[in-house]
């Protein structure tokens, strides 16, 4: 067993000292190289404190003198074994990237295994497994990871939101005490934070040290940042368990979801780069170009008519759409959102010949066919619930949970309900040429229960198992995770899906924030971004087509709009945007995401730089009126300083978004400058109308000349 474990990757390191009775975290932060001192000098012992120097244990526990939140909470009957004293009893290497550590409390009858891996990209992953080696039951209350921040950590940044306003940042000073957030939605939740970051004072997109974690789970959970009078702040993550939800019988085990963590010395963009590179390295990551999507929802809603939908497909083909998705309304009794959920049979009244006629028409026009489903939900007004009212998840006592969008949660923990849904989905995919499912999940449930006991944990695992079994039977089918927008966006669901829907809001001003922070963790090819109608369905705000298209290009591009209504000029501009996406999607979906640190909050600059620095695409957008008359010079981050770039505005071309008497000197003819000049000196930007933007393309002069 090694005394010092020095895991290194992606410019970061995670160092453990295993020489003592418990594993001690020596360091999580910048790479220290190969040589680590045999020991770290002990801290002093304060007056009126423990009689030994404080250390940062991998598993904080009261038995070692830790006065904060313990990593493991639980007990046996009548409160016995309430305070475990786990000690290291073994370790084994998991190759160059990881280590597994075993800790045991023989008296309490508990064995804890901790798997820690640091990938070449710098992604730190941790998972714990608790086994009950005692003779009687052990009730588990919580099992969390706790990662320390480093020198200078002084600010907390996480995200919050609501329906149609997901993933909005909030920042505060790090103080003594606990910043605790609990998510009790039975799913990830609209207010869920994709990450919890602690950083040095004023850390930004491009500067400062940042320690960030993400909890890869789609059910109830708790995150925390805790600062005690001794030691650094700890970032904690755990599944939030209901009363008696996990009771381990003799020999049983509980495995935590994965905690993902990244350290960056380059601000938030460094964290983003780690997550993007690691996610793209997975064998399950989408390998084909992300097709242009047209979703029918905001075009026809529940009004499904073959002629209208074929007409929509005709327009979609003309514009350049590659995937046509039929949304809600195709199954029995589904003329409004008040009935039919759970009755997963094609509605014979609406589709007397089945979906084949529409599918054939779509495929004949060169497009894939996709379908909306919501397998985890039911309406009380449905054939399935009239036959099986006990299939509704809830607290029992004959009480039906409060409705949400006129629907309830199907109890997938019930084997019969699970089997019914699996059979229906399997039949649907087996009998139709469907290549894509938009998998929705449209409600919270605070009383998730099976046979009167809490079941959020088992329901989440059952949903995972349902998707996994369906994928095994139909590996060619891609799945999008939609949960009334962005209420189930996490790396747990993305282990088994190809895309998430960031928000039900297609308002491009709102989407600027929603997408920027969703893509802080998720690469853009995994995030659905659509051009919605001129006037937003959810906010009634009106935007130009160019602004809507610029927003949608930096993701998995799609259209959610009745394109049958487009005039000639709109049709031309939308077709131009589709062509731009197709031309640049390889860059956007493989490049390094960058975000400028602009002083003026009225303007945003972000984009994607090719891994070899040969090309880049940026959006420069105005989100509000500015205090200043002109934007001034703006630097372009992430470029190769020694490469000369040809810089041009490439969109919009049909209409002008400018609010100025004369053009900026380099527009429209372009300019050639070095990456160093463009980053350090920058270029003067045009004055934009609020809620307008431009796409700026940079390509190395050698690439542009064909050399």
- Radius of gyration (CA) equals 27 Å
Alpha-carbon distance between the two ends: 55 Å
What's the overall average pLDDT, rounded?
Answer: 96
Number of helices: 12
Low-confidence region ranges: none
Strand composition percent: 25-35%
- The coarse overall form would be globular
Helix content: 10-25%
User: Can you count the beta strands?
Assistant: 40
Structural class computed from helices and strand pairing: alpha+beta
Strand count, sense and barrel status of the largest sheet are:
10 strands, antiparallel
What is this structure's SSE topology?
Elements lengths: L3 E6 L2 E6 L6 E7 L41 E4 L11 E7 L4 E8 L4 E9 L5 E9 L5 E6 L1 E4 L4 E8 L7 E6 L3 E7 L12 E5 L9 E6 L5 E7 L6 E6 L6 E3 L4 E3 L3 E6 L3 H13 L12 E3 L1 H4 L5 H14 L3 E4 L29 H9 L3 E6 L3 E2 L4 H5 L20 E2 L5 H17 L4 E4 L9 E2 L2 E2 L1 H18 L4 E4 L17 E3 L6 H11 L8 E5 L13 H9 L2 E4 L8 H21 L3 E4 L7 E7 L5 E8 L10 E2 L9 E8 L19 E4 H6 L2 E2 L7 E9 H5 L2
Parallel strand pairs: 21-22, 21-32, 22-23, 23-26, 26-29, 29-30, 30-31, 31-32
Antiparallel strand pairs: 1-2, 2-3, 4-9, 5-6, 6-7, 7-8, 8-19, 8-20, 9-18, 10-17, 11-12, 11-14, 13-16, 14-15, 15-20, 16-17, 24-25, 27-28, 33-34, 34-35, 35-40, 36-39, 37-38, 37-40
Helix pairs in contact: 3-4, 6-7, 9-10
């Amino acid at each position: 067993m090694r005394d010092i474990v020095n895991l290194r990757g992606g410019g970061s390191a995670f160092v453990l000292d295993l020489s003592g009775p418990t594993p001690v975290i020596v360091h999580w932060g910048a790479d220290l190289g190969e040589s680590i001192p045999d020991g770290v000098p002990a801290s002093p012992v304060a007056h009126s404190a423990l009689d030994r120097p404080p250390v940062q244990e991998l598993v904080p526990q009261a038995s070692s003198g830790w006065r904060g939140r313990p990593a493991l909470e639980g007990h046996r009957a009548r409160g016995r074994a309430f305070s475990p004293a786990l000690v290291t009893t073994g370790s084994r290497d998991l190759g160059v990237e990881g280590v597994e550590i075993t800790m045991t409390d023989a008296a309490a009858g508990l064995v804890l295994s901790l798997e820690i891996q640091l990938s070449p990209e710098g992604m730190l992953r941790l998972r714990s497994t608790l086994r009950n080696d005692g003779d009687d039951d052990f009730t588990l209350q919580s099992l969390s990871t706790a990662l320390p921040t480093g020198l200078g950590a002084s600010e907390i940044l996480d995200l919050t939101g609501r329906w149609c306003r997901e993933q909005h940042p909030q920042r505060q000073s790090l103080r003594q005490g606990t910043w605790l957030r609990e998510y009790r939605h039975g799913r990830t939740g609209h207010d869920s934070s994709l990450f919890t970051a602690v950083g040095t004072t004023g850390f930004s997109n491009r500067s400062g040290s940042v320690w960030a974690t993400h909890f890869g789970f789609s059910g109830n959970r708790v995150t925390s940042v805790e600062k005690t009078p001794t030691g650094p702040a700890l970032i904690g993550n755990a599944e939030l368990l209901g009363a008696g939800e996990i009771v381990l019988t003799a020999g049983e085990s509980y495995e935590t979801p994965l905690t993902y963590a990244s350290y960056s010395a380059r601000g938030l963009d460094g964290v983003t780069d780690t997550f993007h590179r690691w996610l793209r390295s997975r064998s399950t990551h989408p390998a084909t170009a992300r097709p242009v999507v047209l979703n029918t929802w905001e075009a026809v809603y529940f009004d499904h008519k073959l002629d209208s939908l074929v007409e929509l497909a005709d327009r979609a083909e003309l514009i350049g759409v590659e995937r046509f998705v039929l949304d809600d309304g195709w199954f029995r009794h589904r003329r409004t959102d008040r009935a039919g959920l759970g009755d997963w049979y094609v509605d014979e009244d609406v589709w007397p010949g089945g979906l084949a006629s529409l599918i054939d028409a779509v495929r004949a026009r060169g497009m894939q066919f996709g379908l909306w489903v919501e397998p985890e939900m039911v309406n009380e007004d449905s054939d399935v619930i009239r036959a099986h009212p006990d299939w509704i998840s809830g607290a029992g006592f004959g009480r039906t949970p409060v409705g949400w969008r006129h629907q309830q949660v199907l109890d997938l923990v019930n084997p019969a309900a699970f089997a019914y849904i699996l059979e229906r989905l399997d039949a649907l995919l087996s009998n139709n040429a469907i290549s894509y499912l938009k998998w929705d999940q449209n409600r919270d449930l605070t009383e998730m229960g099976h046979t009167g006991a809490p079941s959020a944990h088992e329901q989440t695992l059952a949903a995972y198992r349902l998707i996994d079994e369906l994928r095994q039977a139909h590996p060619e089918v891609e799945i999008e995770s939609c949960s009334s927008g962005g209420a189930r966006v996490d790396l747990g669901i993305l282990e088994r899906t190809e895309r998430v829907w960031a928000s039900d809001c297609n308002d491009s001003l709102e989407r600027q924030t929603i997408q920027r922070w969703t893509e802080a963790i998720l690469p853009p090819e995994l995030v659905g971004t659509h051009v919605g109608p001129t006037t937003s369905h959810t906010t009634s705000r009106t935007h130009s087509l160019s602004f809507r298209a610029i927003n949608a290009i930096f993701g998995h591009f799609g259209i959610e709009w009745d394109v049958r209504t487009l005039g000639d000029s709109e049709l031309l501009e939308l077709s131009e945007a589709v062509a731009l996406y197709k031309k640049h999607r390889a860059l956007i979906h493989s490049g390094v995401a960058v975000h400028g640190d602009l002083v003026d909050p009225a303007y945003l600059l972000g984009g994607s730089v090719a891994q070899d620095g040969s090309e880049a695409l940026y959006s420069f957008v105005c989100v509000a009126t500015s205090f200043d008359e002109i934007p001034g010079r703006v630097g372009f981050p992430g470029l190769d300083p020694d490469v000369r770039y040809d810089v041009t505005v490439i969109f919009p071309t049909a209409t002008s978004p400018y609010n100025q008497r004369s053009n900026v000197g380099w527009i429209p003819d372009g300019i050639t400058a070095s990456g160093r000049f463009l980053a350090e000196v920058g270029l003067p930007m045009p004055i934009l109308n609020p809620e307008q933007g431009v796409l700026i393309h940079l390509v190395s002069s050698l690439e542009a000349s064909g050399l």
